[in-house]
Amino acid sequence: MRILRTIAEVRTAVRDARADGGTVGLVPTMGAFHEGHLSLMRAARAQNDLVVVSLFVNPTQFAANEDLSTYPRDEARDAALAEAEGVDILFAPEPAEIYPDGFATNIHVAGITEVLDGASRGPHHFDGVATVVTKLFGIVQPDVAYFGQKDAQQVLVVRRVVRDLNLDVRIEACPIVREPDGLAMSSRNVYLDADARDRATALNRALDAADAVHRSGDGDGIGDGGAILSAAQAVLVEAGIDVEYLELRDAETLQPVTRIDRDALLLVAARVGAARLIDNHLLRGFTP
Ligand code: AMP
Asked: Is any atom of ligand 1 closer than 6 Å to the C-beta of 131?
């Protein structure tokens, strides 16, 4: 595995791989690797000739009051883990390589960025994500890029950029990888002390409780959004979780839904101890 710092080096490596007829897979990350990241690398490795993982803690997607300065960073550990997954190139640029003096372009996706994490974290968040991902696609020009369903809204934002700007890349969303007790893996889980780590399991338990109601058809019939939300809410209250949002939204448009008559996402964000955590479940639409 080669660790590259410059855009020019990445372009050369990708050009060489393409000259041999190879396909290129990209896994964008902010590092502090866990099994979630590694699952994306494995998917990329299984499907491509050249696998590029980007490791860049993107400053523009953090608000001033967020954890940019304390975000976990350990490049040596990450490099060893990526190499063990058979990654070919770890692209780990300095911020100035990505945002040189005079950088002035912003990719803003309207609508779906204004709710959920866009509302909680502010409009800069998905602008930062959309802009850096578009740049990475321009730098690497991958055939396929791999994202985690853990960040469900991010997947939808990236798909919209690709569609609206006619980018020639396929987006693959990979399933959420969880700890044995159900907590979704996240680089931010290291912020949890023992008590918070224990309570953090309430997020997935709440989503599970909602799933159960959805499948059983409790409430005023199959797919009753109110009953589904109440079941999740009860678990979060019981665990004393400070909820930022708990919402049912259309899985494609992120419009609010009150009945699950097509695929919906149940999404939660919460402060647990020192961490801000997110999780979601896909609820399959009920076909009458
Ligand atoms: P991050 O480094 O947190 O920006 O995440 C990089 C990629 O890994 C994103 O596409 C995330 O959605 C994905 N990811 C993060 N956590 C998980 C997880 N628990 N399961 C699957 N994918 C994940």
From this structure: no
